[in-house]
Structure formats: structure tokens, C-alpha cells
């Protein structure tokens, strides 16, 4: 079941290119944090696919973070992650509604905004 194609997969692929761009390099300098994002197709905590968004190195990798502890870990359902990443759902509202779960540093989590994601033309 964990091999399910997620809508988020495309966004993470686009993010790799975004972080290599000048705008992405600015983000890396400005934020300098490591996020692990767990995406579940149906229910948070079940059959999650993990991605690491490393805004220290400017990299996106699939799998759990292997370099110690990430600054913050987020868990989302696939659809809710897309809404937050595209700016259709406010991250604070997602958290209050239970659509996003956070572990780790709350100050690091507050820097996790839709601004860190590329603006897709069409999804």
C-alpha cells in the first residue's frame, strides 16, 4: 500500500528544481532548517511516505532523515498537504483542524509556509 502514487510526489519533484534555482538558494540561506514531511494517502500515521526537505543543503530526498533529528516533522494526508503547499489552506488552520501534526521545534515549524514551495502552473 505504501507504493501508492501520491499527488504530493509531483510537488516534491518540482521542489528539487526550485531549490536549485536562485529563489531556492535564497530560501536555503534564509531558513536553514531540515523538515521531514510524512504523507499518508488516507489517514495520518498509516502507510506514510516520508520526504526530507533540507533547507540547509537545498535538497529534497525521499525517505526518513538520516542525519540525526530534523528540526520539525510534519504529518499530513496527501490532499491536505497539497492544499497547504499551494496556499489553499493556512498552515495554522491545518494544525488546529488536525489536518497537520507537528513534532519537534515549534519555532522551526512556524517557518514552514507555502512560500517554501514552488508555485505550480497547474496541478
From TrEMBL:
<dbReference type="Pfam" id="PF02036">
    <property type="entry name" value="SCP2"/>
</dbReference>
<dbReference type="InterPro" id="IPR036527">
    <property type="entry name" value="SCP2_sterol-bd_dom_sf"/>
</dbReference>
<feature type="domain" description="SCP2">
    <location>
        <begin position="20"/>
        <end position="113"/>
    </location>
</feature>
<dbReference type="InterPro" id="IPR003033">
    <property type="entry name" value="SCP2_sterol-bd_dom"/>
</dbReference>
<protein>
    <submittedName>
        <fullName>Alpha-amylase-like</fullName>
    </submittedName>
</protein>
<dbReference type="GO" id="GO:0005829">
    <property type="term" value="C:cytosol"/>
</dbReference>
Amino acid at each position: 500500500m505504501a507504493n501508492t502514487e501520491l499527488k504530493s510526489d509531483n510537488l516534491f519533484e518540482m521542489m528539487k528544481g526550485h531549490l536549485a534555482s536562485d529563489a531556492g538558494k535564497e530560501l536555503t540561506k534564509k531558513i536553514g532548517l531540515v523538515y521531514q514531511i510524512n504523507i499518508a494517502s488516507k489517514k495520518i500515521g498509516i502507510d506514510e511516505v516520508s520526504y526530507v526537505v533540507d533547507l540547509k543543503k537545498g535538497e529534497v530526498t525521499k525517505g526518513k532523515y538520516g542525519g540525526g533529528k530534523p528540526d520539525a516533522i510534519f504529518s499530513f494526508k496527501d490532499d491536505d498537504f497539497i492544499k497547504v503547499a499551494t496556499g489553499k489552506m493556512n498552515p495554522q488552520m491545518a494544525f488546529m483542524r488536525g489536518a497537520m501534526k507537528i513534532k519537534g521545534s515549534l519555532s522551526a515549524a512556524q517557518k514552514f509556509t507555502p512560500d517554501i514551495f514552488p508555485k505550480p502552473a497547474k496541478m
